[in-house]
């Protein structure tokens, strides 16, 4: 009898437990339904509970409109965990928006209550705007994470066409596309893309307005990686991709090694980038003479290569300007070979268009020594005491210093300004393209991006009286921050305060020849132009 009683009690307990479980499953509060408006009054002591059943990946979107009471929405997962508390800082009136994506299937509970226990009561309207299926929610969330319509359409097409990414890559020889931004007259959206290696952890973009670089992200469920950048319509710059790779070895991948591979270089020229009308050969323009020769230097203890350009109509009885350009190999010193800056072609076109007065040009070869030469006083002595007298002995060059121009980019801009400072009686014009004015020229050199001290020339010009030198300077807005753009602006300001004549310009680009090839003519017109 006692055993039977125990058995009956056990059955009763199991039955009660089962009933409680069923009751818990059934007690879901009020069901949330799309477009059904729930209008209720609630006190500070109450909490109202609502529920909705969602499959993994579905979403529920809606709002609670508060009327005289500040409400909080607590959202619980099917397992009873508080996954979100929604309480925007809008006080006792306004909307509390909710947008919940489920990450497990089951019944989600929404509990409304007030944290302010001093308020008596208020009203609210609860409305579910959307309950989205997995497919609908996938497209919605993906669209929010993809910044352009082109990329979204590409992703959506990839859901049914596995070859669409390969077709896209094949149809774009350059690794970027340019698209308009609705409502913007000054900027456009540039999308860079690539397919990295299998062992690539991430990809970084270098170049353009974002000095620190941008990190690529994968287009969801595809092999394509992309990053976007808002770029002014008049910009021009080089960019590159770097792959940061991870390799593993060993039976259990115990060995990890990381490496960086520079994977791609490209050029971006926006629709309104400044014209570069003098860099291309014209059939109707007669070419000047180009002579590759050398000069023996006792100062440098070497034979230094130079290339000399004379106008097509060179007249030995007429005095000419003298233009000396550093880094000659990059500025067209190799006859019959392409160069980064085609100085002979630029000179031919400028002279043909009567934009500059007659000029003899000397392109000084670097011969692998630019880093040391272009900060060296000895190299400056070679230019002034040996090269210029030798050119004067061979060609009819004006005797006045204001007819002599030193030109160069980066260290070449520094060298032009430094040599002119030391020899202003011989050199009266400086054409500096992104001059490296951060250089101290000492053992404790400035960091090339974050200089601790003023560059050498900034202090020299600051401490001296004004010299008879005319300047043309240009620099890119995307050029190495404080060391380049900052130091160029500082040098300009010092020159202007001292009373120098300075034609200073900035372009939306970086530290590269694709800009300098265009601004060289600007500098020449400014310094030795016909007007």
Summarize this, please?
With about 525 residues, the protein is an alpha+beta fold. It has 11 helices and 25 strands.
Notes on the protein architecture:
The protein is 26% helix and 34% strand. The chain has 531 residues and is an alpha+beta fold. The chain has an eight-stranded mixed β-sheet, with helices on both faces. The chain has a five-stranded mixed β-sheet with strand order 1-3-8-5-6, with no helix packed on it. Strands 2-9-4-7 form a four-stranded antiparallel β-sheet. It is elongated, with a radius of gyration of 36 Å. Keywords: Hydrolase. It holds the Pfam family Esterase.
Question: Tally of extended strands?
Answer: 25
- What would the average pLDDT be, to the nearest integer? 92
Helix fraction? Answer: 25-40%
Q: Report the structural category.
A: alpha+beta
Keywords: Hydrolase
InterPro entries: AB_hydrolase_fold, Esterase-like, Mycobacterial_A85_antigen
GO molecular function: hydrolase activity
Pfam families: Esterase
